[in-house]
Design a protein that fits this description.
Distance between the termini: 42 Å
CATH superfamily: Pleckstrin-homology domain (PH domain)/Phosphotyrosine-binding domain (PTB)
CATH architecture: Roll
CATH class: Mainly Beta
Largest sheet: 5 strands, antiparallel
Shape: globular
Strand content: 35-45%
Helix content: 10-25%
CATH topology: PH-domain like
Order of helices and strands: HHEEEEEEEEEEEEH
Oligomer: single chain
Length: 158
Amino acid sequence: MTPQLPHDLHDQSGSDALKTILRGIFDSQIPNYGDYNLVFAANERREGRDAHGARINRPRYYVIGYRWQPAELMVAPVNGQTLTGGGVPVELNMTNLSHAIRLTDGDYEVGTNTGRTFRFGVTAEAALRTSSDRQFRLEQADDCADFELFMQAFIGMA
């Protein structure tokens, strides 16, 4: 069963509706959620297999919370089909960070010293289609620019 969006979100358009949904996903899972700036991130290059074993692109989506002081990332997986939480959020900071790099294609990769690794890209505009075929477009140009500055510093500290 696909969860229904709250009634007020049916009446909102694209970017604002998706921001509201993503904020709700993040806030419901993260203590001190108000301390974080948020961006929507995706790993569009993640491959999987369909029911017949054929390779297909299976993107992963995240709400990335970040804060400058103390420097920290909170990676909260998102189920892009249902717009619900997609897994257990992971905190990355200077006590558990194994690596943080910017890849040649512009994506980021961050990992913990326990072996969890995340690859994602953050863009000024993003699109997401749910299982109910609802299309969302997200505009996050200002947030994307701030996040890039944060990641430069975060990578420098790693």
